[in-house]
Structure formats: structure tokens, C-alpha cells
Design a protein that fits this description.
The chain is α/β, with parallel strands linked by helices and 330 residues long. The chain folds into two domains: 219 residues, Alpha-Beta Barrel (TIM Barrel), CATH 3.20.20; 75 residues. 44% of the residues lie in helices and 12% in strands. It contains 14 helices and seven strands. It has a seven-stranded parallel β-sheet. α6 packs across α7 and α11 runs antiparallel to α12. The chain starts with 6 loop residues before the first helix and ends in a 29-residue tail after the last helix. It binds flavin mononucleotide (FMN).
Length: 330
């Protein structure tokens, strides 16, 4: 996830277990000459997990060139972003703009596919401003020869409003023979199995749920296996934050402002598990630097028992509280 899905965060979340694959935020592939080394710098494997790298662009030759470079460097899956609603991206014909015309989408994807051989997937939304063309979009992805499709079933116009329409995941899962990955509103571990059962999707992708609760994947795995589901308390959340801070300092230590900014961005989600009317987040966001931010975290989280955090396998509050992501993110 752009702005928050740093490899350092991914590694810490993955260390709790339960993940099947890790996906990167999008990497832009412009129309100019491709600079492979800078593309590959964005690629960092998390533990031994399969890695999917997402690329965003509108030039099939460039996308194919980038994909070939990524596979050659050991990336498992290359994913094409077909959902970014940012005006800057859409005006260049990339991201969500590619959902406008299924025939054009087919041509673009078929050209990328024709030029490449590794595992190739795409991530779509339900459509630009309606889901009327969803079947045609799914057909285009499959007919072009892609190996997998992920759908976040809200239109771009919807942003994050309302609920993700899981009926659309079911529709594509039933229609297509390639694996369909469901995404959207799995905010608790219990939602993962519910999405699988209700939609028949091949796998579940979790976004904001993992920002809010780094244990969600491990909890979903435990639920599935009928094992004990960990319910983190404040001390454990604090330990996670401290570990994350140390890891960020390890790679971004020369830019302390960036470390503090990244922690604040994450706390906008993680801090929603407290039932305190947003007091912790507000105070944390006012912190001038990382040490003071950690002091704030200590004072708010240090003594909290698990029952006072909404980080169990199912919602204690309905609905789960989440911030509104910035408009440029899909
Ligand atoms: C901060 C943020 C950054 C995101 N960045 C990306 C991105 O780079 N590529 C992408 O395909 N989706 C991105 N998304 C969308 C998520 O992958 C996901 O589709 C969406 O949040 C719905 O799933 P969720 O309910 O599990 O969060 C981003 C979402 C957020 C909140």
C-alpha cells in the first residue's frame, strides 16, 4: 500500500505468520526509458514469502519490459494496477482510466502478455463510476491470458464509501476460470473465511485490516486451523511499534522526519483499535518527533488489557473504525 506498505512494516507483519503472499505498492512505469535499477530498488522480498510487485502505466511495451526485468530479478508475480483513481494517473491513461474501455484493456493486456512469460495478474476496482462493465472487464483480463485477477469491488467514484460489494467478487469468481482474489473490508480475521465462503474466491487480499491489526493474518490462519486466536494487549502493540521504529531507524535513520511521518501514517489506522474517541491518534499526530511519539504511545497503550483493544478475531465495535484514506490512493 502506497505510503504505508514499506518493506520494514511488511517484514514485521509477516513475522507474525499467516501470509501466503506479499504485494508491493505500485511502482510507476512511465513512457520514457525504463531505468531498471531504480525499479529493482523498490523490490524487497519479505522473508521466504512469494512476492508480487505492482506496476502502474499505460504503455504495453514499457510494462512488458518492466515485468521481464522484475521476473528476471526473482519476483514471483507482476501485478498491473488497473484501479488507481489519482487524477494525475488517470489523466495519463493509467490506473483506473484503463477500466473505461474493456476492448482497449484487452488490447493492452494482450500486448503485455504476448511479450512476456512470467506470472502476470491485474488488480481492478468494480469500474470507473459503475459496475456495469464488470463482466467485460473480467473477460478482458482472462482472455488476454493473465494468470490471476484481484478485485476490490467498489467503483473508483465510490472511493471507500459504503461497503465493498462482495456479490461482485462472487460474480467474477463464478464467471472466470482464472483464480479471483477478493479484496475489500476484511478488517477482522473472521471476515476472511466469511469472504471465502460467501464469494468462492480463491484467496483474500487484506489492506487496511493489516494496518489496523498487524496480527490479522496470523489470527485468520489460527481461526481456519481451529487453533487459539491471539488477542494482543496494549503492551504487545507498543512492542510492535517500538520494533517498527527500530527497524525504520535502521534503514531511514538519516531521515528522522520520514520515520516519524511513516509512524504517524500507520497510527492513523492502528490507533483506531482504541475506544478513546481518537484521543491517542490526535496526541500522537501532534508529537514533534519519534521519541515523543513513542512516549505518547506508552502512556496510552502501556497498561491496556486486550479487552480494551478492538483487535480480536471479530469486531467488538460495529462497524470497525477506520480513517478515510487520502484520495490519491485506491
Ligand atoms: C494507504 C493506502 C494505500 C494503497 N495503495 C495501493 C496501491 O499502491 N496499489 C493498490 O492496488 N491498492 C492500493 N490500495 C488499496 C488497497 O490495496 C485495497 O484495495 C483497498 O484498501 C481495499 O481493501 P481493504 O478494505 O482490505 O483495505 C491502498 C490503500 C490504502 C488505504
Amino acid at each position: 500500500m502506497e505510503g504505508v506498505g514499506h518493506p520494514v512494516w511488511r517484514a514485521l507483519v509477516a513475522a507474525h505468520g499467516g501470509l501466503g503472499m506479499v504485494c508491493t505498492e505500485f511502482v510507476r512505469v512511465g513512457r520514457g526509458p525504463l531505468h531498471l535499477p531504480s525499479l529493482l530498488r523498490r523490490v524487497e522480498r519479505t522473508a521466504d514469502l512469494p512476492l508480487s510487485v505492482q506496476i502502474l502505466g499505460s504503455d504495453p511495451r514499457k510494462l512488458a519490459e518492466a515485468a521481464r526485468g522484475l521476473w528476471a530479478s526473482g519476483v514471483d508475480v507482476v501485478d498491473i494496477n488497473l484501479g488507481c483513481p489519482s487524477r494525475r494517473v488517470v489523466s495519463k491513461g493509467a490506473g483506473a482510466a484503463l477500466l473505461r474501455d474493456p476492448d482497449h484493456l484487452y488490447d493492452l493486456l494482450a500486448r503485455v502478455r504476448g511479450d512476456t512469460q512470467g506470472l502476470l495478474s491485474a488488480k481492478i476496482r468494480a469500474g470507473l463510476d459503475s459496475s456495469d462493465q464488470l463482466d467485460a472487464l473480467g473477460d478482458a483480463v482472462q482472455a488476454a491470458g493473465l494468470d490471476m485477477l484481484t478485485i476490490h469491488p467498489r467503483t473508483c467514484a465510490q472511493g471507500y464509501s459504503g461497503r465493498a460489494d462482495w456479490g461482485l467478487i462472487r460474480r467474477l469468481s463464478q464467471r472466470l476460470s482464472i483464480p479471483v482474489v477478493g479484496n475489500g473490508d476484511c478488517l477482522f480475521a473472521a471476515d476472511v473465511d466469511r469472504m471465502r465462503t460467501e464469494t468462492g474466491c480463491a484467496a483474500v487480499m487484506i489492506g487496511r485490516g493489516a494496518l489496523r491489526n498487524p496480527w490479522i493474518f496470523a489470527q485468520a490462519e489460527a481461526l481456519r486451523a481451529g487453533g487459539r486466536v491471539a488477542e494482543p494487549n496494549g503492551r504487545q502493540v507498543l512492542a510492535f511499534l517500538k520494533e517498527l521504529t527500530a527497524a525504520y531507524m535502521g534503514v531511514l535513520g538519516d531521515r528522522p522526519g520520514l520515520v516519524c511521518g511513516r509512524l504517524k501514517e500507520l497510527l492513523r489506522y492502528l490507533g483506531r483499535s482504541l475506544d478513546d474517541g481518537g484521543a491517542f491518534i490526535r496526541e500522537a499526530l501532534r508529537s514533534p518527533d519519534t521519541p515523543s511519539l513513542l512516549e505518547v504511545a506508552e502512556s496510552h497503550l502501556g497498561a491496556l488489557p486486550a479487552r480494551e483493544l478492538d483487535l480480536g478475531a471479530a469486531a467488538a465495535h460495529a462497524p470497525a473504525r477506520l480513517p478515510q484514506p487520502r484520495p490519491e490512493r485506491l
